[in-house]
Amino acid sequence: MQKLLYPVDSKPPFGLTLLLASQHLLAALGGIIAVPLVLGNVLQLPTADTIVLVNAALLVSGIVTIIQCQGVGPIGLRLPSVMGTSFTFVAAALAIGFSEYGVAGILGSSLVGSLVMIIGSFFMPYVRKLFPPVVTGVVVMMIGLSLIPVAVDWFAGGQKGDPNYADPANLAMATFVLVLVVALVQWGKGIFSAAAIVIGILVGYLVALALGWINFDSVKNAELFALPQPLHFGLAFPISGIIGMSIAYLVTIVESSGNFLALGNATQMEITGKHLRGGVLCDGLGSAFAAVMSTTPFSSFSQNIGVISLTGVASRYVVTIMGVLLVLAGVFPVFGALIVSIPMPVLGGAGLMMFAMIIAAGIQMLDKVERSKRNGLIIAISIGCGLAVTTRPELLDKLPSFFKEIFGSGITVGSLLALTLNLILPQDKEHSEK
Prior knowledge:
By secondary structure, this protein is mostly helical. Helices cover 70% and strands 1% of the residues. A two-stranded antiparallel ribbon has the order 1-2. The radius of gyration is 21 Å and the shape is globular.
């Protein structure tokens, strides 16, 4: 196993910590603001309301990340886990948002639904027993495989169908950043290896700036300072919305558990039931806090596990400082706008490598699993069905929305199948005779 440059409880020098925290910020920021932007655009909210959602998302992400990393009593994983708004809740949120209850209904339903996660957290020591190495390996693999399409879209410069999608210039820029990051990780020493991602993105940004690719409109239009606005939209509590959000929270418990187990592998720490309980409890309380602060629910970010796997920097102190940077981005929107100005191909070059490293970690975990017909079936069926949903999400289009809500994520499908098959498939005869 690769030796970590900075283990979980280490504290790099402050200047280096700031640089290392910045690369976590670059990996997560787009995902954190994506959900409020999608909701704002689809629900056709006034620009001022969308800005409230975005600023609150950044601020609460920072606060919950700090608590997740450092812990407060029984709350928190105490590992370098980045928290942010979750796409798992988007379908339920849009259904509520288009009803008479609007955004108030989304936030009220989210607040009540968070009880599912808060209460569920106390059962996590029992849930941990359901994750032997064969299941954990599948979950980690699915996290990486599900992120690859995101990285490919960044690499190509947008979404499929965009006029400049996969433009040769985009591919060349992304490849340049990818090669630079690989070279820094492989041959760089000290800071150059540890901060490979942020250095690669910074060099790519400067090249893009020289080529005239950077659009500073978002920076010019961003407010310099913005105070948080609790209960800006009010709260409403539609029964159907609470049910939909509660289902989404159940799915998030599975996804967050998988992320925490993958994080344990990346940081070379054993994840116990106590870890999972603290992590999921922080997730649920953070989502309740998010509803009060006028933004959408939270979950752990798998993107940042790739940063740790690639650089060997597992310090929770680094990610705590990243949480502080997120809080600053929430109260100084111009800071976040500057990060958002980074062209997608620049992010894509680093992102493809980060997410592929999670897949590699899953392969290494599965390589240690006993080779048997039973384990082979669990791995094949779980990953095959998880990839089916990831690569062809339209597979679920004609099913009731309830099914789409639960099985819309390849990570969830792969995880649930691995858990179920591990429980119901009989042990191989050779294994049981040992």
